[in-house]
Design brief:
With 466 residues, the chain is α/β, with parallel strands linked by helices. The protein is built from 15 helices and 20 strands. A 7-stranded mixed beta sheet has the order 1-2-6-5-3-4-7, sandwiched between helices. The chain has a 5-stranded antiparallel beta sheet with strand order 16-20-19-18-17, with helices on one face. A 4-stranded mixed beta sheet has the order 9-8-10-11, sandwiched between helices.
Length: 466
């Protein structure tokens, strides 16, 4: 079964039986449920919904079904075409729409597609709102518009430029400093919308560039998740010399990874750390608070405290991070998977914002990318899993793990999302999967060996409990 319904949207592989895969019938049902929710939430709204998509092979088909369904429910559709997730988020706000749908499966392989759902602020629905959409879809209590109240359809291809312009206008983006540095970069756009919008951003910043996999065909040249094991092509290119920086994005351009001038990974976890360091150093008159999720590197906390700020952790998931950011008034936040959220722009992960701020920082410091990376605390994160039987009481195991460490001197325990055990010099985070009988185990220490050893110790405790 490859159809996954969650509070953040619907995701699945294309083709196959209804109820099992992402197909036109299920797309219609879920989009109708979303339209019904928006109608109830925004009865006096603009009656507009923005639709944008990445370059996936199935994107045209899914877009046609989505737009037709919205029109059938009576909503006017603003189709912004091939666009990044952050572009679509901004387009909702810029156009005064009641919501938006992003057609993208993010870092999933080519056979996948998905619908991401936005509110009128261009932000993802929260848990309560997402559950209401799921309830409406399950009930199938729909009533479509009559012939005199069908929605209208328009195309607006201006939002890529408007997105780039908004990034350039950010106070901490120093366009002139970046231009003066005369950087040459190599970009892996993974055959999606990054190949369309990143050249526009880099041209405006005066950066010379070479684009790999720039044609937005949706036929990805390699596994699209921006992890080191998938990036041998651009890393080899960087090792050949001639570039100051490597830039990698995922298909919908909300995740961002850098490669140093010597062809080594900057570290996906350190995308947010490096940008946050620059923002914290140059932000005046505000509380210097930051947020990331529980499974992200401790280096963000270290950098935040260095600048006199306060760090807070959120449950995993972008909407949880943005909610916490608003609560604590964070000036920057995000996730360790390369997601930078900068409220001065908007509350969404945005690779364009991350690139512009990173290049501004690099140009002001006047150093190499590898030298910048070496200036931050160095940690390694290990990712493991514990396979369980279907009958295992995962919640009971997590409670027992929490009780084992709660109250011990020098150890903090956080249970807002699974259980995270924070030792003075390392941490381990256990989360149960919502789709498989497994516990995901993330651990961090100053070396990978130490991180794996910590995970092994905790995993053995769990095995002994079964």
């Amino acid at each position: 079964m490859t159809l996954i319904k969650s509070i953040s949207g619907i995701r699945g592989t294309i083709g196959g039986a209804t109820g099992d895969t992402l197909n036109p019938l299920d797309i219609v049902k879920f989009v109708t449920a979303y339209a019904s929710f928006i109608r109830k939430s925004e009865p006096q709204g603009s009656n507009k919904i923005v639709v944008g998509r990445d370059a996936r092979i199935s994107g045209e088909m899914v877009k046609n079904v989505v737009c037709g369904t919205l029109m059938g429910y009576g909503f006017d559709v603003v189709n912004i075409g091939l666009a990044t997730t952050p572009t679509t988020e901004l387009a909702v706000r810029m156009s005064g729409a009641d919501g938006g749908i992003i057609i993208t499966a993010s870092h999933n392989p080519r056979q996948w597609n998905a619908l991401k759902l936005l509110n009128r602020e261009g932000e993802f629905l929260n848990k309560e709102e997402g559950n209401e959409v799921l309830r409406i879809a399950e009930a199938e209590d729909f009533e479509y518009a009559d012939v005199d109240h069908l929605g209208h359809y328009v195309e607006d291809n201006t939002f890529n430029k408007r997105h780039v312009d908004s990034v350039l206008a950010l106070q901490l983006v120093d366009v002139e400093a970046v231009k003066k540095a005369n950087y040459r970069v190599c970009v892996d756009a993974i055959n999606s919308v990054g190949g369309i919008i990143l050249p526009q951003l880099l041209d405006a910043l005066g950066v010379r560039y070479e684009i790999l996999n720039g044609e937005p065909t949706g036929d990805f040249a390699h596994n699209p998740e921006p992890l080191e094991k998938n990036l041998t092509g651009i890393m080899d290119k960087m090792r050949g010399g001639g570039f100051d920086l490597g830039i990698v994005v995922d298909p919908d351009v909300d995740r961002l990874a850098f490669i140093s001038e010597d062809g080594t990974m900057f570290g996906e976890e350190y995308t947010l750390v490096s940008v946050a360091d620059y923002v914290l150093e140059n932000t005046k008159g505000k509380s210097l608070n930051t947020v990331s999720n529980l499974s992200s590197t401790r280096a963000l906390r270290d950098v935040t405290e260095k600048h006199g700020g306060n760090y807070a952790a959120a449950a995993v998931g972008e909407v949880n991070v943005t909610t916490k950011m608003k609560q604590v008034g964070a000036v920057i936040g995000g996730e360790g998977n390369g997601g930078v959220i900068y409220p001065e722009s908007h509350y969404g992960r945005d690779a364009l914002v991350g690139i512009a701020l990173f290049l501004s920082s690099l140009s002001k410091k006047g150093c190499k990318v590898s030298e910048l990376r070496a200036s931050f605390p160095s940690y390694s994160i290990a990712k493991n899993r514990i396979d369980l039987t279907a009958s295992t009481d995962v919640d009971a195991i997590l409670v027992r793990i929490k009780e084992m460490y709660a109250g011990k001197e020098g150890i903090d325990v956080n249970d807002i999302d699974g259980v995270k055990i924070d030792f003075p010099d390392k941490w381990v985070h256990l989360r149960k999967s919502n789709t498989e009988p497994i516990i995901r185990v993330y651990s961090e220490a100053v070396t990978m060996e130490a991180a794996d050893e910590l995970a092994r110790q905790i995993m053995q405790v769990v095995y002994d409990m079964q």
